[in-house]
Fold this sequence. Notes:
Elements: E1 6-10, E2 13-17, H1 26-32, E3 51-58, E4 63-70, E5 83-85, H2 99-106, H3 116-129, H4 136-142, H5 154-161, H6 203-215, H7 221-228, H8 238-241
Parallel strand pairs: 1-5
Antiparallel strand pairs: 1-2, 3-4, 3-5
The protein binds FE2/S2 (inorganic) cluster (FES) (2 copies).
Amino acid sequence: IELNEAVVYINGVRRVIPDGLAHLTLLEYLRDIGLTGTKLGCGEGGCGACTVMVSCFDKRLNKCVHSAINACLAPLYSVEGMHVITVEGIGNRRNGLHPVQESLARSHGSQCGFCTPGFVMSMYALLRSSETPPTEEQIEESLAGNLCRCTGYRPILDAFRVFAKTDDTIYTGHSLFGHEGNNFICPSNGKPCSCGLRSDTNGGTAKQMDAYNESYECDSYNVIEGSRYTDKELIFPPELLLR
Length: 243
Ligand code: FES
Ligand code: FES
């Protein structure tokens, strides 16, 4: 790596940022290079439509740290030496949606769709950065910077709740990703997690869960992994560990 090069990885692709672009934000750069999934909403950090995940290696902690950031506020050169993952980097219709995207789509958490990449990336960053499955409160907190003018938020929270930690719940075999028991390895963070529908015992909720189960075509995770969701999670580029 040349010390005078501003290297950034974007969705696993190495890019050298030329001099003279200090006037650009990360969002402007991403959209200039054709990654228009990241949206410009308010342009001042208030709406979350421009959310992307940045990863850097923290030498003090000796591990990669993942954070969701507002690309409209980040000067382009501030992500030098980091790995930027946008919504294009986690899944698409041709090669398979990421489970976060798929869950959001299936629970009707996207209407006009303008806020959707931002919500997806906030949730994705939370899963990547969590050692254990997040709680529902942590999920809600992680979405605090994302605004949606269409859905009223409920379908979005419902979509993401399936990724939350569940205490004393037994998983049904009939679940979003077809796993049985709680040994499911989350494709988002590579660790055991609770992505799936819970069995429950109280009447009203059970009814809702039945309706919820019916509203999903029950794809197994193998199907997702085998035929559509073929790409593995983007790893932290080894070159950036040396910086
Ligand atoms: Fe609204 Fe960045 S565009 S927070
Ligand atoms: Fe339209 Fe969220 S779906 S703003």
